[in-house]
Amino acid sequence: xxxxxxxxxxxxxxxxxxxxxxxxxxxxxxxxxxxxxxxxxxxxxxxxxxxxxxxxxxxxxxxxxxxxxxxxxxxxxxxxxxxxxxxxxxxxxxxxxxxxxxxxxxxxxxxxxxxxxxxxxxxxxxxxxxxxxxxxxxxxxxxxxxxxxxxxxxxxxxxxxxxxxxxxxxxxxxxxxxxxxxxxxxxxxxxxxxxxxxxxxxxxxxxxxxxxxxxxxxxxxxxxxxxxxxxxxxxxxxxxxxxxxxxxxxxxxxxxxxxxxxxxxxxxxxxxxxxxxxxxxxxxxxxxxxxxxxxxxxxxxxxxxxxxxxxxxxxxxxxxxxxxxxxxxxxxxxxxxxxxxxxxxxxxxxxxxxxxxxxxxxxxxxxxxxxxxxxxxxxxxxxxxxxxxxxxxxxxxxxxxxxxxxxxxxxxxxxxxxxxxxxxxxxxxxxxxxxxxxxxxxxxxxxxxxxxxxxxxxxxxxxxxxxxxxxxxxxxxxxxxxxxxxxxxxxxxxxxxxxxxxxxxxxxxxxxxxxxxxxxxxxxxxxxxxxxxxxxxxxxxxxxxxxxxxxxxxxxxxxxxxxxxxxxxxxxxxxxxxxxxxxxxxxxxxxxxxxxxxxxxxxxxxxxxxxxxxxxxxxxxxxxxxxxxxxxxxxxxxxxxxxxxxxxxxxxxxxxxxxxxxxxxxxxxxxxxxxxxxxxxxxxxxxxxxxxxxxxxxxxxxxxxxxxxxxxxxxxxxxxxxxxxxxxx
Length: 729
Known about the structure:
By secondary structure, the chain is of the alpha/beta class. It is 28% helix and 17% strand. It is built from 21 helices and 26 strands. Helix 4 packs parallel to helix 5 (143-158) and helix 5 runs parallel beside helix 7 (202-209). The radius of gyration is 26 Å and the shape is globular.
């Protein structure tokens, strides 16, 4: 059956029936009743059988802020899988747990905040600058990957196009939003038409195509207009160009910013009118209480208000949570599935696939340091402020796990009594001393040095957590309202790493963070480096299995790791020039898409090297053979990039598929491209096909010097030419 924006035809027919029901309910409401429905704390209309409902819920990487749930790796860590299908499986579990919790809470009469089925996730803003604290909530710096991962999340969370929505997803924050956090209530982002079309809008368009039920506007302005009150963004682009049919919700408190900080309206009545007239249907906040006055003064038509309330009631009807639209299948989902053993197994797999192996240098015997041989260890040192930190497992917008396995706990559980583990925290995450009464900085470093001296190898666990990087108001420290001022390890962490390196023991550095950090990659004393993001409640278990070879690391970087903070453009400049792998002008420390495996892979082109560009409406198949030529099993995200000398971007990701191969195992696979995959944008934002030849490469990462230096596995390459330039020799 033909799919239409995430729903099959039968669902679309049912949606029309539900829309008629929503209009009938709205027609029977008073003005005051309708206005109360536009607040996130929607009041009951008992005479119509409409219960109270709180629209605000979160599910970025598991059902959040409402008790126990499976706490998956943070969104940026899930993105490291480069696997939309896998992310869809994770989202399906989140949706099921959300429905189970809703059923239990509603049965108990609890309809408070974080108890509904409208989840304000995912966040598909572009992680354009590694200093942005909320970048951890996104799927990284590539708009194509963010769109594919976000679309898979939407489909999984919402039930993959069924008759009834399992839950409702929300794409946020529309549309040009990625810091600075401290200025977000007054900031005016001014992207070029090219960057808007090329970088900031594509992920949202992909989610609209996937049938996302809601879109959340951002706090800031774009070209002088507040995002939640922008007719250009909400009416012309979102609904006009993208064809969005769901409801629009404001970010929390964003409408009061219109008159308090953006200064584009005089008072709350004008702000409410501006947002409603632009296309905002739901207010996370209280500014829409003034819609009654706005309608009476003629600033907003009651017909526009009816449209907004109809959209909101339609979402609740599609969820089956208003009388006459119940879903027996979903209503029967029991609470017992929450954080179940099956979901924990998926969480463990997600944590494993979140780990990116960045360095694995030869040890004294000439073999790569990892995986470690437990038979050759008697004592293992585990040091660092994130070694036993729950906060460093989960990032922000998190739920509550029944059990947390930190890196220390994971190693203790995995090794048991076979290897003695010595632990020292070593330093505070960002302060210069652990104890306020300490007479000098570095008051735990001597202990860490003693632990390293007594061990055969050292696992040093450093990085960040959501107290340093995160949302304004949540991350409270001297580092800038949640944003980072530097890519360096904070506090005394560099000194602690030097203590580990100076011990002369093999050192494995594990970074837990939601963003890129600078590490001394070229220091020969540093044997291995892993970036695990915020790997979720099972992170320690997954890391232990990887360190000792029971599992292979399978992650790839969804962001660029830069060499210096100084090479970054101005944080407030929304031009993409010099940013991300597509436009950067310097060599990366670790490139986007990079990640090592315990396996080694050969990529072989099948068929002709020179291919013809597909015509409009045609598909082009890119076939290749992948072989694990190493001695250990390994996982790899096979990545396809396209490039053109006439395009501004150096290269663009256009395909990814995950493979897990045993030594000697061969897999034949193919990617399918269309003409749109080779198009770019001009200065006006118009899409066009650059003239001349194009290049396609498929491998374990980008086809660029730094990637090939770090992982010298040559990609398969093709040249694509227009009809008149084709040469089959």
